[in-house]
Amino acid sequence: MERGKPEHMTHLDHKTLVRKDHPRIIFRGWIDRLEAEILLCRLTASQRGYPKVGTELDEMLDFVRSFIRADVLGEKVGEICLGGYTADELRACSHHPETYFGQPHFMAAGTDEPLLLHINRLRTLVRQAELAGYRAFRDYDGRVTRPDIITAMNRLSSLCWIWMIKLKAGKYEKEGGEP
Fold first, then answer.
1. Which of left, alpha, beta for 13 (phi over 0: left; psi -120 to 50: alpha)?
2. Residue 137 neighbours by CB under 8 Å, 6+ apart
3. Which of 18, 4, 30 is nearest to 131 (CA)?
4. What is the mean pLDDT of residues 78-83?
5. What is the per-residue pLDDT for 16?
6. Helix axes 147-168, 51-73, angle to 10 degrees
7. What b/e string do you get for 79-109 counting C-beta neighbours within 10 Å, with b at 16 or more?
């Protein structure tokens, strides 16, 4: 009989094997998907001439990559400060964009800047990852066991929304000085 890890199982941490459909493994898959989408958005930002958005996407990528480590090692997600905004500022700016950016809430359209549309897709994937995180980090009574990860996921979608709002409002300079 063959020894070792069965193909239908994977490591949750250094000592625990689980089925590959374990909620925390599914959440890690969503984190992988977010990383891939962030990289594609980063490429679009570069191609479309938005270096500041590209830098902010790099920051988001580093933050998202820290989630797997936090999960595996049981560490807390670090302080949320993305794009120059604290967690509270991300929430406030995304809820009141007209106050902060002079741009009301809007629905994305096919005529919008391609980078805005890519970030909108990223925002929807963040939301799906957040739902997978909630399924992974709740107890039998529905109480969240990793509020740090759930809050971080929620603020990531706020950040995406802020990027979309700022792009729509012309708040990012394109290379060459054009809005």
1. beta
2. 24, 27, 144, 145, 146, 149, 150
3. 30
4. 92
5. 78
6. 170
7. ebebbebebebbbebbeebeebbebeeeeee
Lowest-pLDDT choice from 33-37, 42-46, 58-62, 65-69: 65-69
Six-digit token string for 129:
């990852």
Sign of CA dihedral 18, 20, 24, 28: positive
Q: Are 97 and 105 in contact (CB under 8 A)?
A: yes
pTM greater than the 0.85 cutoff: yes
Q: Is the separation of the CB atoms in 38 and 122 below 8 Å? A: yes
The residue with tokens 């999960």 is 71
Confidence band, pLDDT 50/70/90 cuts, at residue 29: very high
Nearest to 157 by CA among 107, 103, 84, 82: 82
Structure confidence at residue 115 (pLDDT): 98
Which pLDDT does position 83 carry in this prediction?
93
The answer to whether the beta carbons of residues 163 and 53 sit under 8 Å apart is yes
**Mean per-residue pLDDT over the chain, rounded:** 92
DSSP string, 17-58: EEETT-HHHHHHHHHHHHHHHHHHHHHHHHHHT-HHHHHHHH
Q: Which residues neighbour 170 within 8 Å (Cβ) at sequence distance 6 or greater?
A: 179
